[in-house]
Amino acid sequence: MYQNLEECILDLEKHGHLVRIHEEVDPDLEMAAIHLKVYEAGGPAVLFENVKGSKFRAVSNLFGTVERSKFIFRKTWDLAQNVVAVRNDPVKALKNPFNHVRTGVAASKALPMKKSSLPASFEEINISDLPLIKHWPDDGGAFITLPQVYSEDPLKPGIMNSNLGMYRVQLSGNEYELNKEIGMHYQIHRGIGVHQDRATRKGEPLKVSIFVGGPPAHTLSAVMPLPEGLSELTFAGLLSGRRFRYSYVDGYCISHDADFVITGEIHPEETKPEGPFGDHLGYYSLTHEFPVMKIHKVFARKDAVWPFTVVGRPPQEDTSFGALIHELTGDAIPQEIPGVKEVHAVDAAGVHPLLFAIGSERYTPYQKVKQPTELLTIANHILGTGQLSLAKYLFITAEQDQALDTHKEVEFLSYILERLDLRRDIHFQTNTTIDTLDYSGTGLNTGSKVVIAAFGDKKRELCKEVPEQLKKLSGFSESRFVMPGVVALEGSTFTTYENAQEELQSLSEAIQTNGGVPTCPMIILCDDSEFLSESINNFMWVTFTRSNPSHDIYGVNGSYEFKHWGCDNMIIDVRIKPHHAPPLIPDPTVEKNIERLFGKGASLEQVNID
Length: 610
Prior knowledge:
Blueprint: H1 5-14, E1 18-21, H2 30-40, E2 45-48, E3 57-60, H3 66-72, H4 77-88, H5 90-95, H6 101-107, E4 113-114, E5 122-125, E6 143-144, E7 147-152, E8 162-165, E9 168-170, E10 181-185, H7 191-201, E11 206-212, H8 216-221, H9 232-240, E12 245-249, E13 252-255, E14 260-274, E15 277-278, E16 284-285, E17 288-301, E18 305-308, H10 317-329, H11 332-336, E19 342-345, E20 354-359, H12 374-382, E21 393-398, H13 409-419, E22 426-433, E23 446-453, H14 468-471, E24 479-483, E25 486-490, H15 497-513, E26 522-526, H16 529-533, H17 536-545, H18 549-552, E27 553-556, E28 559-561, E29 564-566, E30 569-573, H19 588-593
Parallel strand pairs: 1-2, 3-18, 4-12, 20-21, 21-23, 25-26, 26-30
Antiparallel strand pairs: 2-3, 5-17, 6-9, 7-8, 7-11, 9-10, 10-17, 11-14, 12-13, 14-17, 15-16, 19-20, 22-23, 24-25, 27-30, 28-29
Helix pairs in contact: 4-6
């Protein structure tokens, strides 16, 4: 396997998976715009050989397709998968020891290797020497999008008690003093947060190293949800087929395999404004106070290459990350949560806002009437587990149909809607945590959740077109069919929640007056019904990124019974609210400028972007 990123680039190029851009390209918006075009076209990895303002090359779209990603890891993939499986279920290894001999050999590559000094190929540089890539027009500055952020437990220092995570790092802009300070944005439920809390309690700064580049296995390891006790650095060695090499300089861990290393300290309670930044939900995450990292030293290897990606409305390159992780970890979630068969974080909805899950229903097998019981226990466990706890919507059912698959999203949601008891099966959690990047809630990290747990016999046939009753509504003329059981209504612009309650009450009464719509359990009130209904991806994105369950779910004939809410039809108000973050819109001038690279005789002529 690859000892460094350069070897990976040459291998991809040799097999037709990479294209070089020889023309000079501006890191201010142009490089990101080119990446987005190439990714959308299903194109190759791209090596930028002439980055304006920097002597360093840059590469993007390495993981742009699952096929290319698996090609990169083709020599170690199966063995790494086996090791993760053994970690998830060690009993398998005990029962079949000879089947796991090769797993043991692979694991021997996992132990990090300490070296005595820096590699001779490393030189000291400044932040300003790097390709300072700005991705979206309103971004606060240049960001690192594929960092490997390393920290150690202040109470138990050492590489085996370290955390390697992928957090957002702002290199320039805002109030950061160039070459002296950078921003460190990490969300809740992150390992570095535990380390910083412990350092703060000791009254000392937290030493942090940021690795960029190196073997692609190191980048993937920074985002892997690994089993307890399996560190990211041991997994990096496992997946790369080569032990992670490191040394310490001035008390900072230095990866010998990385292309770049940034070292510095995060001091207790010192923050600066970070952002805005185009994020994975398809909107800007706005400016907030986050820890500031004071630069100690910055290193680069000779002929280093700067890897990057672009974060935006899914699907994007990180979609491939998610697919790889799912395939590598296999049944890690079912192993962790008893009764769970499958959990799918829906990429089209920005991953964190929406979960589809299949569980078990074993509590009352002797009862003839089937209804969610164990499913509710499982749902609470899911929403209390790691990154899954950031979800806002969880649709869950039990495994009574072997063909049911959470990744077949229309079929799965239709299955739920056919069985949903709207008076019994909707369960809210209010004033709780949601994704830091989600601005649909009531504050930073704050919003609500809803569990929709449906199980049992089919209760209704779902509409296959817009029911007549919904075509006659005054003020909602643009009604459009989305999918079985779901219709979009276009309403007036949202103003306030007080006005919205009056509008939704009038809508509910109008639907009742027209005779009700039992075949349409979900009605979406939106700003643009044509856009929302154009594709299932649009429906998923708009509906679940632009709504806060407790505030935006209404019901036809809604009522409470002993604090439990139910209705005849669920209405979700997904109109844009004043507190929502703006969506990501490319700069039209930049879009025009990069056309030169796709024209006849240009470096990207072979990429079809039409």
